[in-house]
Amino acid sequence: MVETIEWTSAGVIMIDQTKLPRQTEFVTCRTYEEVAEAIRSMIIRGAPAIGVAAAMGVALGMQQADVEFEKICTVLAATRPTAVNLFWGIERMKRKYAALAGQPHAAVAAALKAEAMLVREEDIEICRAIGRHGAALVPDGRTVLTHCNAGALATAGYGTALGVIRAAVESGKRIDVFADETRPFLQGARLTAWELQQDGIATTLITDNMAGHFMKAGRIGCVVVGADRIAANGDVANKIGTYSVAVLAKENGIPFYVAAPISTLDLTLATGDQIPIEERSAREVTEVFGVPVAPDGVAVQNPAFDVTPNRYVTGIITERGVARAPYTDSLRVL
Ligand code: MRU
User: Fold this and answer.
1) pLDDT tens-digit map of 27-68
2) How far does the centroid of ligand 1 lie from the alpha carbon of residue 108, in Å?
3) CATH code for 132-333?
4) How far is the CA of 149 from the centre of ligand 1 (A)?
5) In 277-314, which positions are buried (b, 16+ CB within 10 angstroms) versus exposed (e)?
6) Could you tell me the residue ranges of all domains in the chain?
7) Which CATH architecture has domain 5-127?
């Protein structure tokens, strides 16, 4: 399994997810500003991976001379608005920092570095636990459809939705995967297809608009996706196009599962209507890898996420178990 992000003596190293699968390149961030830019430009992406990167960014900033802790946190928090794991990672580091009050700078910097490394290690363990809880839900001998990339690349390792798929395969289930290509950033085509291919898990790549066709034809046994933020009532923000997949799944009587760590829950928001949705550059829509495909000057919208109402969600698979409706109760208990 590929290393998404690592702390080294040279800095924070990330695999460059904008280059995969054609080039396997690594980026070394030596300052917290470089970590912030890596998150913004999606060198690293996926909610849990962004949370780990934010924690490492804070720790890295504290290794730099004359940088204010609050400034580091503010810059990192301004990178991407939707995945709540970003803010969760920063908040965790703030709590640690507060607990270290009065200690010499070198001791604080060392403790924050250790905390960031712990966040990374825990994330891998959390994904494995999500996998264990979710594996039982995957029907044997069937095809799992997934959207975007909620895999090892989107976490510190193993993945959430792809963690469920990996665990199902490891438990002996004979399953294969349909991966939506996930326009416009193509996380499904570039990252999910690549990741699963590396693991030898049979994967078929489809364009997003093919999902309904295969569901109606009886080809899909269940859907498993990740999440960027889950409101208290179980509404789920995830990659744009997830809502369409969920509606199609319900229409076709196919279970629709969301796999996410507890750190993706935002119980401060009553419903998904309050989740901020990132709007990204129009060029992601008008161009394909730098080649214009639309007429100059056309109006464009590019929301990076949508919100799936809880009524379409069969279950939310977390490291602490599977939440079912009514989510306002079950998520709070978890
Ligand atoms: O814009 P991205 O690539 O960061 O969006 C990623 C997703 O929407 C994932 O499905 C989500 O973060 C879950 S990752 C385990």
Assistant:
1) 999 999 999 999 999 999 999 999 999 999 999 999 998 999
2) 32
3) 3.40.50.10470
4) 6
5) bbebeeebbbeeeeeeeeeeeeeeebebbbbbbbebbb
6) 5-127, 132-333
7) Up-down Bundle (1.20)
